Amino acid sequence: MSSSRLIWPDLLRSLSLIAMASFHLGYDLEALGFHPDLPLWWPDYARAIAGSFLLLVGVSLWLAHGRSIGWRGFWRREAAIVAGAIAVSGVTYLAMPGFYVYFGILHSIAICSLLALACLRLPALVTLLLGGLALFMPYLFAMPQMNAPWLWWIGLSTRWGAAMDFVPVFPWLGMVLLGLGGAKLADGLGLLRRDLPHSRGLRRLGFPGRHSLAVYLIHQPVIFGSLWLVAAMR
Fold this sequence. Notes:
Elements: H1 8-31, H2 42-65, H3 71-95, H4 105-117, H5 124-141, H6 169-188, H7 200-205, H8 207-210, H9 212-233
C-alpha cells in the first residue's frame, strides 16, 4: 500500500462495511427462519449505514480530486461501480423479480459522484447548504407527476416500486455533498490529511475499506449462502 494513502478513511469504510454486514446478517436470519421479526428500528439502521457510505463518498471525492481532478482514476472507479450496480440489479432480478434492486446504493454512488463533481470548486459553506437542500428536496418538491417508474431513481416521486434496496438521488445526494463540504472545511483547517500511525494492525483493519466494492458485492452471497447451508442441515 502506498504510504501516501490515508488510513482513517479506510478504517471508517471498514466500520460501515461491518455495520452493513450485520444488517444483512439480521435480515438473512429472519428470512431463513432463525429468529422472529427484526426490531422496528432495523430500517433506520439500514438508512444510517447508507448515509455513512455516502458521506464517505463525498469525503473521498475531495481527498482524491480536491486539488485536481484525476479523470482517468475517476472514470475507472465510476466504471467499476456501474458494473457492480448492473450486476446487483441482474442478480436480484433473477432471484426475486418483484423486489429486485433497480436503484440501490451503488447506482446512487455512481450518479451522485458525477453530480458532486459540479460542486467540487464551490466554497465549503455553499456545498454544505446545497447538501442540506438536497436532503429536503423530497419533502419540498415531491409530486405525482414524477411517479412514472422511469423517474423513481430521482427521488421526487410520491410513490415507487418495492425493492430490496432503494437509494434515490434525492435525498441521498445530500449526504455526499455534506461529506464533500465537510472535507473542504477540514482541509482548510489542516485537519483532513492528518492521519493515524501506519501500523500493520491498522492496515489490516482498513483492508475491507480499501476494497469496499468487492466486499460489498461478495458479502451478502457469502452470508446468505452460509446460513442457507446451516438451515438445510437442521
